[in-house]
Design brief:
By secondary structure, this protein is an alpha+beta fold. It is built from 7 helices and 10 strands. It folds into 2 domains: about 100 residues, Homing endonucleases (Endonuclease I-creI); about 120 residues, Endonuclease I-creI (Roll), CATH 3.10.28.10. The strands form 3 sheets. A 4-stranded antiparallel sheet has the order 1-2-4-3. A hairpin with an 8-residue loop joins strand 5 and strand 6. The chain is globular and about 60 Å long. The two termini are about 35 Å apart.
Length: about 250
């Protein structure tokens, strides 16, 4: 097997917004596996989200190529995957709470794993992997209302809800348990444009790494808040004033 050189100490500790974001994304969509020949870390995302995987490889200064996975079903999308054989990165991810077979046992990280000042970036990563944003028309409202939801384990959802309550003053949400495609999962959801506006500001303030399609969808809420001073970002990451009108779009997850 060919051995590439790259930053295998990337997850040794979380001290930057990007590290916190990618740890959150790994919590949501990544995995750590013990194989006979060593440990493997991998992550697969929809083909349209290829750029975020390429950014991670750039972060760790890796020459690895993404693996393309063609969908065998019409109701599933093609994917790109990162696959890295690294005992060091796997061990560090485990220490940070991203354990093997984590689907039903994942817990919200301690402050020794993710510092409080980086939690917004961590949760944004979780949202990009396990969250969704949708819009709907409620009652006689002529403007669409927005809904943000995040799925995961009960402990993860309670941890996120607690941060939303303490840091940005959202109502303390009760975690719902629902039956998903792969069994029971927990979910928290928030509705109302002013509430979603607070989540938007929490997620994207001082941020440079995120799924662009979810950022664009969430930024639509700013156009529905009177006297909004929030600015969006163009493709180069520069801040621009949000447009006055926004279309109603489909759910993004």
């Amino acid at each position: 097997m060919r051995k590439y050189k790259y930053d295998e100490d990337y997850f040794s500790y979380i001290d930057t917004p990007n590290k916190a974001y990618f740890l959150g994304l790994w919590y949501a969509d990544g995995c750590v596996m013990n194989l006979k020949r060593g440990k493997l870390i991998s992550m697969g995302l929809q083909a349209r989200d290829k750029l975020i995987l390429e950014k991670f490889l750039k972060e760790i200064r890796s020459p690895h190529k993404l693996v393309f996975i063609k969908s065998r079903s019409i109701d599933r999308q093609d994917k790109y995957s990162i696959q890295l054989h690294s005992n060091r990165m796997a061990d560090d991810l485990i220490k940070l709470g991203c354990v093997p077979n984590k689907t039903r046992i994942l817990t919200f990280p301690k402050d020794t794993q993710v510092p409080d000042e980086l939690l917004s970036h961590f949760i944004r990563g979780v949202f990009d992997g396990d969250g969704s944003i949708s819009s709907y028309i409620a009652g006689r409202n002529i403007n669409p209302q927005f809904r943000v939801s995040i799925c995961g384990t009960k402990d993860m959802c309670e941890g996120i809800a607690n941060i939303f309550h303490k840091v940005i003053g959202l109502p303390n949400r009760k975690v719902r348990i629902k039956n998903g495609k792969y069994g029971e999962c927990a979910e928290i959801d928030y509705r109302g444009n002013r509430v979603i506006r607070k989540i938007f500001d929490f997620f994207y303030k001082d941020s440079e790494t995120y799924l662009n399609r979810k950022y664009i969808k969430m930024s639509e809420v700013n156009n529905l808040i009177p006297n909004s001073n929030v600015y969006g970002k163009d493709k180069l990451g520069r801040f621009i004033k949000a447009p006055k009108e926004a279309p109603v779009s489909e759910s993004l997850s």
